[in-house]
Amino acid sequence: MTRQIVILSYLEKLTEFTSGKAVSDLKLNFEKLTDSEELSNEEYALLLISLGRTLKFESLEIVAQELAIQSQISNDIINEAKQIPAIMGMLNTYYKFRFFVEKNDENAAKEYGIPSLRMNSLAKPLMPKETFELISIAVSILNSCEKCVIAHEKALMDLKVSRTKIHDVMRIAAVAKGLNVL
């Protein structure tokens, strides 16, 4: 089954008892973004798994896992996608703090020093580095960490990822957040 068919079926079930202009807009936007040619089936499924976990949007995470299994993604990589929100949540929280205090105090960076937080999963992910960075930037935007969004966008630029692809990821994250409120 293609991801479009799976997502269309999912959206029908999700919005079965909800209607209105906002619901229609969210549904239409998500359907449109399902057709993104920028993201592979693997990237799309792993992104949705992490977004579902970040947003505590269980039904999105479940349908994304179905897509991942259909795409024959290994359990280890699926589990990594489930764990990215945890490590990014820790880092996003810490770096929001650093951004806030360093913005107004030129001595803060020096006085607080290095984070001393383990981040090995960032350096050597099981999934392709590009996929990991795309998921990380999406989770960082949902967690409102400006410093992390900037860092992950730079990492994606260094990997020669197009801004069109990054834009699709950001729009998927935004629509998923909206759908989660339904």
TrEMBL record:
Coiled coil: none annotated. Residues 118-179 form the Carboxymuconolactone decarboxylase-like domain. GO terms for biological process: cell redox homeostasis. SUPFAM superfamilies: AhpD-like. GO terms for molecular function: disulfide oxidoreductase activity; hydroperoxide reductase activity; peroxiredoxin activity. It comes from the Bacteria. Pfam families: CMD (PF02627). PANTHER family: ALKYL HYDROPEROXIDE REDUCTASE AHPD. This is Carboxymuconolactone decarboxylase-like domain-containing protein.
